[in-house]
Amino acid sequence: MGNLSSALQQLRAERREAQLQVEKLDTAISAIESLNGMAAFRTTNQPTGTVAAPKRFISKASRLKMARAQKARWAKARKESQPVLVAARTTGAAPVKRTMSPAARRKIAAFQKARWARLRAGQKKAA
């Protein structure tokens, strides 16, 4: 039994050393890749020994081109959708915007004040 436990301890020690060596190699690789402009490999949330594909690197000029292209697509979509809205408006009568006279506003305000006064009076009686 003594031989087995000492062999197990030795194997565990070798495994720890190998694991440290692999971690050192990973840091060296990621440092070199960052100097090259490549993103580091991601190994998180993955089984031991597997490496994910590198993260995509897009230059500032390419991002600017993509942004301009997207804005052009949205502008084109808005431009094409407007005639449909204009055609729908011309077929029906346009709603007329109505304004309230000052006298009508005063009547509504007086009605609301009376309504709130009745509500408050009812709450005082209940309490």
Describe this structure in words.
By secondary structure, the chain is mostly helical. The chain folds into two domains: 1-57; 58-91. The protein is 72% helix and 0% strand. It is built from three helices and no strands. The mean pLDDT is 83.
Which helices and strands occur, and which strands form pairs?
Elements: H1 2-36, H2 60-91, H3 102-126
Main pleated sheet: none
Q: What is the H/E order?
A: HHH
Mean pLDDT: 83
End-to-end gap: 85 Å
Alpha-beta content class: mainly alpha
- When the domains are counted, the total is 2
Shape: elongated
Question: What does the radius of gyration come to?
Answer: 37 Å
Contiguous low-pLDDT stretches (5 residues minimum) are: none
Helicity, in percent?
over 70%
How many strands in all? 0
Number of helices: 3
Binned strand content: under 5%
Summarize the structure.
The chain is an all-alpha fold. Helix content is 72%, strand content 0%. It has two domains: 1-57; 58-91.
Quickly list its features.
single chain; mainly alpha; 3 helices; 127 residues; 72% helix
